[in-house]
Every structure is written in structure tokens, then in C-alpha cells.
TrEMBL record, chains A, B:
It comes from Aliiroseovarius sediminilitoris. Its EC number is 2.3.3.21. This is Citramalate synthase. Belongs to the alpha-IPM synthase/homocitrate synthase family. Pathway: Amino-acid biosynthesis; L-isoleucine biosynthesis; 2-oxobutanoate from pyruvate: step 1/3.
């Protein structure tokens, strides 16, 4: 008989505390959808009322299978739960579950809040009772619980019991400062259960300040806690929260957890884990951590010669799990064999059929690797990948040739001493025997300079003669820039998402130390791919 | 009475298995020196004979206080230890200690080596006996020990005993594939000790494939092991080794370890930890991981408004250790999450003192929020934040004015039909009454076009008259681009990290729909901030 273990995601709330991370409304919606497809049990969306983005997000709440949860804090002293406007802001979001953080460490009650210990207990009780009376599932985040327990176990337990007796579904033991070690989490969680709080009402919330967030979460589960909180890619305040991208595969694949528990995330959904992890990095424009457990691009890379040769005999010699279980892939530098089955699958996606023993498969793989060494990334730029493959296979028509381009960016003060800027692009292409010269500037309808890439895109698409009908409806929907390598050797990678009027989307990539030139390459690929897809005939 | 716990560093050997890492001879020497200044007990230098760099490094062995160690493998079957040329290559390095990896998992003996189980035991015995006869301190790395113990405990223990009885000073339990969880490491290490191998002869070597490398190391120490292996910044094969940059402060600062153990690293040396961690990233040209426990730049960053206000009352409210203990620093970033208490703390960091009731605090906060709505991000760009604050406070001197700039990017085919590109920038500044016109192009020494931002940066810094001395040593070390908002309304955010010859670093931000103009703003802030910091007098 398996037991139920609940996964609680706080990427959208505690994850937003990561330095440098500021989600937009659209990003929050995308992330919530990805989390829901994975299957986590709870999605904490943010703190309604605390900032405009969080309020807007709850107002346009996505439909999720997961229990959608609003975060807030227990009512303040000196007013009733009903009359606390911060708490009212949280309740107004109308979520089925509400998680309120409150104190459980005596030092924080007296130092940070400056109120009496009993007042705090009453604030907890009244707040939770208010949630329950309003028909919400109530969660109580016991902030600094482990430090509080070490300082004053009776008081810390009293806070938990106030929440539990008032009807909280979950009491979450939080190691807010992240300094507690796994053996302490284990002992203290056991003590909490021994004091009468049932394990299937206890959650664990850890941070990675000692590199032990995952281990502390497991230690609490070992002791009996049945809800675990964390974030995708371990985002979060300071060193981050427990990384769900690590914890989830540990819980689903490793014993004793795999046999003992059932969670909202099913074994099959694990295959989407690497993709979801990379998607989050894409949204945040962060460079994915290669060394991430399970989902990092190096997680199954076998560099040591001894390892690589044994892997060829039997992958279990140097792999703790099969990489495909989590949607990742083995990398054996110096061995092209590993990649060919992946490659054929991707070619099939592009409608290109190549026999398994075709030697050109190796040629394509070499070309892709060579370009990836230069900074190209084909994981998301499927359209550019297809162009590379067709080029190697001799299936890429030459629609037109760009002879040259020139872009000028100017900024100056005008006569009224206002700063004005303008970009201008000239593109010369040859179609068949005909040479065409186009010029565009970057000003949009509102008079704003939208920059050199905009001017270049407009000039390039302005007059492509016989192809004009096909590319007229093409427009840029996203543009991502990443610097690969550091310092003076910096290369710029640009990924462009394009869309046509039928809503088809495709992604292309360009790389150069010159950001405008990298963008130009990606634009060129975007146009070429559309001509190819729509069956344009070379002039 | 404290016990001795030994720290064994393998950055130069297992750390070199990191994907993308390849140390040069000089880099190995720099890292060995840094490790020795920290105080680790053993430095494993590499595998002499395996590659030219490792051989050269041992030939020019640095003098270290730490026990310098060569790595190799147990002799192969069918020859004596004396006649194994791989082992001879390792011995020839002449190090006081030698660590040999060998099998202890029956499956690997038969599958990877293809020899009899007893042959392997004899190889271990004879190899260790050979080291001891030659007067070396012998270490035996029991590869795949935990998996081997789970599969066949008798055989795994037999391998360990062969090494121990032959005189090995240390038997190192290796979780080579990184899949073992902390509770298993704890149980199995206890079982090894119960089987007669003394804990003060046992080492632990873990990998981070489940995010538990640090926890597994602690679990082995808890069970009685007295040597712990790891790498700086957690470098290593796949997901990396146990991170010594995390483990060392845990062992020195956290109980029960701090009271129980003495190591080669002393409390005072910990203050050098952050510097050593960053130095390694510098050597490898890697972007430091902000979220690294203890040494990451975000490890003591307090972004949540509630945290920041409590930190001002007492830093222990939200910090598990004082950041200066490990040579790190507290950061209270500014963002739209934060309120006035964050703001005052950040102003204080910049040396700006504003009274709590000063209405200009509200003005600064409004300006910051307004600019964040436009796409600016100040939580990493502290230097730009400081300029905004000083501007509101009327404390920003006007050093010079940029009248205009013009950047040209051209790509064309040359006479040999090669594609060539070049960028050129003209900048016109006014300093006092003097107008200065500078021009630069983007070509670097190797003839590569490094793009428009490079040309602009060079032109801007080319001739700033009276300020030239101050900005001469300024150079760009990192450049990050992010598109905020999507589609046609896209804004580009550029963050630039600059450095001077004293190693000071500062970050600035620029935002515009025009990527070149966003970069220009960030460059301008970088120069202005340095002029301000170095006390330049406005012309």
C-alpha cells in the first residue's frame, strides 16, 4: 500500500525572491501551466495585494488541476482577522487554498514583531480559523520553526498547535534561514510528531544555505512529514529553495520513496522534467546550470576515458538512472553513436526521412556539434536545425543571396535639446539575376526608435520579389539574446521566434560576436524556413 | 577533546572531469597554491602519465604544506605491481602520498574489467603493498563501493580489507555514480566500521547526482569516517563532486562538527573562502554561481521586504551565519518587492546617509519603481541604483555630456567572396566647454569584428580628457542582455559588469527598445560611477 505525499510548488512566490528574477504576468501564466502539466499538487501563485503583478495574476487565475494557493501572513495584532486589510487582500483572490506565514520563534515575536508571545499565538489561531470559516483549505507556514524549536521548544510547538487546532490542513515546518542540518530536521520533525501533530498534516520547507535543502526535505519525509515544498530549478531567496527538479525524480525513482509514496506527479510525466526545467531558464533568460542533478546537460556526460569505455559496454556501469527517464540524454564526448537515434527522431519531426545506416547522419551530427561549439544552440531552434540538416543532405534550395547590408544607429540631441535616436538599414539581395536594394528605418507608428534589428528585419522583408506574398505575413514574436563565453571572446547568440497569420511559430538561431549580425543570421533563417515550408520555387 | 578530520581536495583531478574544464599547467599551479593557503590536508594533483599537463605539473611540483598526492589505478591483472607501467608512471611522480582507484563492485570486476573476482582482490593487495614498500602513504579509492556493497556486501568488504591489511592509510568509500542517498551512506559506513575497518582510516567521496553530495559526506562523517573528499565550487564529473566550498564552512561553523573536529583549515582561513571560490571561477572564465551556499553573491541577499526590515533590526533574524565569517557580504537588493527599509540599507552600502523620515526616500523609491516598470532592474545593478539615488538627492556631479553618437555596422562580401563585417562608432562628448570627437572600430587584434557595443565602448573611453587616467583601467567583464516584454513593444535590458585593475567590480543597467542604445546607457553609467567613486572633479 502506497501513502500519499504532496508536492507543493512555490516557484511563483518564493522563487520570485531570487536575486535578479522578476516575473511578468505572462511569465507567471506560462510557468503555472508548465507546473500543472508536470502534476504538482499545489501551486502557490504569489501574494495577492503585495504588488501589482501578483494581484493581476490572481485576477486572471489560470485553471489548474493543482490546488491553486494564495500566500499571505497571519493577521496583525490589535485588529480582528476580518478587519486586517492585508489578509483581506489575500482572501479576495478567491483561491481554494490559502497559506499564511507566521512566527513560531519567540525571538522573532519579540524582536521582529515586537508583540507579546501570547498575542502571536492568538494571531495564528484567529487567522487560521478565519480561513476555515470562509471554506478555504488552510496552510500555516511556521517561519523559522527549527531555530525556534531549538530556542524554545514549548513555545514553537504551541504555535503549531494553535494552527492545527484551529483547523489548518497543513502545518509547514520552515527552515527560513536555511542553516539547519539534515540530522536536526529529522530529530525535530520526529519530536513534533511525538508531541501530537500528525505527520500527514506536516509539510517541510527548506533552503539551500548549507547545500542540504534536498537532504533536509528527505530527512523530514523520513521522519513522517507528508508535504514537501520547493521550486523549479531551486529558485528562491538567497541560495534558493529545495529544488523540485531534483526532489521529484529522487522521490519517484529512488527507494524507499518510489515504493512507499504516490504523488501528483506520475512516472510518465517525469519525461517532461528536463524540458520544463529548460523552459523556465528560457523564460528567465538564464543560462541553464549544466551540473544540475537529473536535468543538467552534463548530468549524464561521461568525460573520464575509463567511464566512457565502460558506458559503451553497459550504461549502468556509470549511470545511476537511465537519462531518458527524466527526458535528458547521455553525452559521450568523442562518440557520435549516442546521438544518432535522437537525430533521426528530430529529422522525422521535420519530415525528413533518413535510413539508420545512412552515413550522412554522421555528417549532420558533426556539423551540428561543430556549430554548437561555436555557440549555436539547436535545442529550441528547430527551424535552424532543419536548415542545417537539409543543407548537408543537399535539400536546401537557394532562394536568394544577401550581397551586403549596412545598419546605422544614431543618437543626438535635437533643436529642443531632446535626445532622439534612429536606426536605418540598407539591404542588398540578389534574386536570380536581379539585384534589389531596400532601405528601412526603425521608427514605429508612435515615433519610437525600435532599434537596429527592427530596421534590418523590415529592410530584409521589404522587397523579396517573387517571394513577397509568402513572407508578407511573417512577424517577429520573440527575440532572445544570450552571451556565450565571457570576456573578450564573447559570442552573442540570438534566438528569434517568428509567426505567420495562421499562428504557426518557428525558432531560428544566429551566432556572432556582433549582436546585429547574429540577429541578421536568425532573421535570414526565419525567412528561408518559411519559403521552404510554403513550397516557394527558387527564382 | 577534538578529533582530527582530514580534508582531501581533488579539484585538480576529479574537478578536471567537469565538462568544458581543461586546466593548463599554470592554472594547476595557481589552484594548488590557493588550496594550500586555505589549509586543506591533501591536494590530489592529477594522474601522472595520463596526459602531458598532469605529467608536467608533477615534474614542477609546487611546495605545499598539504600532503601532495598522485592519483592512479591499481595494477592490472597478469603482471606484478613492479612491472605495471601505468602504476610506475604514478610512482615516478615521487609524491609522499599515492591514491589508487580500484574495483569493489563484483559486477564491475566481471563486466568492465573482465577478470576473476579473486584476481581483483589480489591486484588491490599487491598494489597497496607496493606503495607501502616504497615508503608512500597509500590511499585506496574503492570505486562504486556503495552500489557494490548493496549488490554483494561480502565481496565489497573483502576488497576493502585487502587494501587495509596491505597497509593502506586510508580506504575511501566512493559513490562513483552519485546515486546513493544519505541514509544509505550512513548505514553502509556504519556497517563497514562494524566489520572491523576503523573509522579513522575511512574516507568518503561523493557526487552530486541527487543533489545530496554534501549531505552524504556528512552522513559518512556522522557514521565515523574521518576523511572527506571534494572539490572547490563542486567541480567534477557529471553533476560534480561534494563541494568543499560548502562542506568546509559547515564543518567549521555548525554543530556538532565545529566542537567535535579539528581540520587543516583554521577558522581564520575561512575569511578567504569567498575570494578563493571567485578566483577559481576567474581562472576558468566561468560566471560565479550567485546561489552558491556561503560564497555566492546572493547567499546573503535579502530581497523579501519583510526579511529586509527585520535584518535592519538584527541580522541574525534572517542570516544563519554572519557573512563576513566566510569573506562574503550582505546585500539588500532594491526591487519592487521592497520598501523603505531595504532602500536605507542599500543607500548606507553606497555611503549615502538619509534619515528615516526624509521625504526624499519616497522620491527615490518612486523613481526606482517607475524605472523598473520600464524594464530597468536594480537588484544586481547596484552602481546604477546609486546613480539614480544621488541624482534624486542632488549629489550627482555632471562630469561630461554626450552630445551624440553614431554607430555603423556593415556586412558585405569582399573580392574573394568572403563575408566580412565591421562596426564603427563615433562619439561626441562635451567636457566643460571643450568638445571631443572620438572614433573607434570593432576589430580586435585577431581581425574579428566584435560588434557595435565593443566599438562604442572603445570610442566612449578613448578620450575623456581630464578623466582619462581614472577610466584607463576600466574594462568590461560581463555583458547580459534580456528582452523584457514581448512582441513589438519589446524593451531590451542590458547589464554590464565592469572591473578595474584593483579587481573592483560594479554592475550597471541600461534599457531601450534599441539594444545598442541600452548598452550605451549601461556603459555611460559604468564610467560615471567610476568617476564618482574615484573622486573625479567635474570639469
Amino acid at each position: 500500500m502506497t501513502e500519499r505525499l504532496y508536492l507543493y510548488d512555490t516557484t511563483l512566490r518564493d522563487g520570485q525572491q531570487t536575486q535578479g528574477v522578476q516575473f511578468s504576468l505572462t511569465e507567471k501564466q506560462q510557468i503555472a501551466t508548465a507546473l500543472d502539466s508536470l502534476g504538482v499538487d499545489y501551486i502557490e501563485g504569489g501574494w495577492p495585494g503585495a504588488n501589482p503583478t501578483d494581484s493581476d495574476f490572481f485576477a486572471a487565475a489560470p485553471k489548474t488541476r493543482a490546488t491553486f494557493t494564495a500566500f499571505g501572513m497571519t493577521k496583525r495584532a490589535g485588529r480582528s482577522a476580518e478587519n486586517d486589510e492585508v489578509l483581506a487582500g489575500v482572501m479576495n483572490a478567491g483561491t481554494p487554498a490559502v497559506c499564511l506565514v507566521g512566527k513560531s520563534h519567540d525571538f522573532h515575536v519579540t524582536t521582529a514583531l515586537g508583540i507579546e508571545l501570547d498575542e502571536n499565538v492568538e494571531n495564528i489561531r484567529a487567522s487560521v480559523a478565519h480561513l476555515v470559516a470562509q471554506g478555504r483549505e488552510a496552510l500555516y507556514d511556521a517561519e523559522h520553526f527549527f531555530d525556534g524549536y531549538k530556542a524554545n521548544p514549548d513555545y514553537a510547538l504551541k504555535c503549531l498547535k494553535a494552527a492545527f487546532d484551529a483547523g489548518a490542513r497543513w502545518i509547514v515546518l520552515c527552515d527560513t534561514n536555511g542553516g539547519t542540518l539534515p540530522h536536526e530536521v529529522h530529530q525535530i520533525t520526529k519530536a513534533v510528531i511525538a508531541a501530537g501533530l500528525p505527520g500527514d498534516h506536516l509539510g517541510i520547507h527548506t533552503h539551500d544555505d548549507t547545500g542540504n535543502a534536498v537532504a533536509c526535505s528527505l530527512a523530514a519525509i523520513d521522519a513522517g512529514a507528508r508535504q514537501v515544498q520547493g521550486t523549479l530549478n531551486g529558485l528562491g531567496e538567497r541560495c534558493g529553495n529545495a529544488n523540485l527538479t531534483t526532489l521529484i525524480p529522487v522521490l519517484l525513482l529512488k527507494e524507499p520513496y518510489a515504493s512507499q509514496f504516490e504523488t501528483g506527479v506520475k512516472r510518465d510525466a517525469l519525461q517532461g522534467l528536463t524540458r520544463i526545467s529548460r523552459k523556465l531558464d528560457d523564460i528567465l533568460n538564464r543560462v541553464p546550470n549544466k551540473a544540475s542533478p537529473f536535468v543538467g546537460s552534463s548530468a549524464f556526460a561521461h568525460k573520464a576515458g575509463l567511464h566512457a569505455s565502460a558506458i559503451l559496454k553497459d550504461p549502468t556501469t556509470y549511470e545511476h538512472i537511465p537519462p531518458e527517464t527524466v527526458g535528458n540524454a547521455r553525452i559521450v564526448p568523442m562518440s557520435n553513436q549516442a546521438g544518432q537515434s535522437n537525430l533521426r527522431a528530430r529529422l522525422a519531426d521535420a519530415g525528413i526521412d533518413v535510413a539508420p545506416d545512412d552515413p550522412r547522419l554522421g555528417d549532420i551530427l558533426n556539423r551540428v556539434k561543430e556549430r554548437e561549439d561555436q555557440g549555436y544552440a539547436y535545442d529550441s531552434a528547430q527551424a535552424s536545425f532543419e536548415l542545417v540538416a537539409r543543407d548537408v543532405l543537399g535539400q536546401l534550395p537557394r532562394f536568394f543571396e544577401v550581397k551586403r547590408y549596412k545598419v546605422t544607429i544614431e543618437r543626438r540631441k535635437n533643436k529642443r535639446n531632446q535626445t532622439v535616436s534612429l536606426s536605418e538599414a540598407i539591404v542588398v539581395v540578389k534574386i536570380g539575376d536581379e539585384k534589389k536594394l531596400s532601405v528601412s528605418e526603425s521608427m514605429d507608428a508612435s515615433g519610437t526608435d525600435r532599434g537596429p534589428v527592427n530596421a534590418l528585419a523590415k529592410a530584409l522583408a521589404k522587397d523579396l520579389g517573387p517571394y513577397q506574398d509568402i513572407i508578407d505575413d511573417l512577424h517577429l514574436v520573440d527575440f532572445k539574446v544570450r552571451i556565450t563565453q565571457g570576456g573578450t571572446e564573447a559570442q552573442t547568440r540570438v534566438i528569434i521566434d517568428s509567426e505567420d497569420r495562421d499562428g504557426h511559430r518557428w525558432s531560428t538561431v544566429g551566432v556572432s560576436p556582433n549582436i546585429v549580425d547574429a540577429s541578421f543570421q536568425a532573421l535570414l533563417d526565419a525567412i528561408t524556413w518559411k519559403l521552404l515550408r510554403d513550397g516557394a520555387k527558387p527564382a
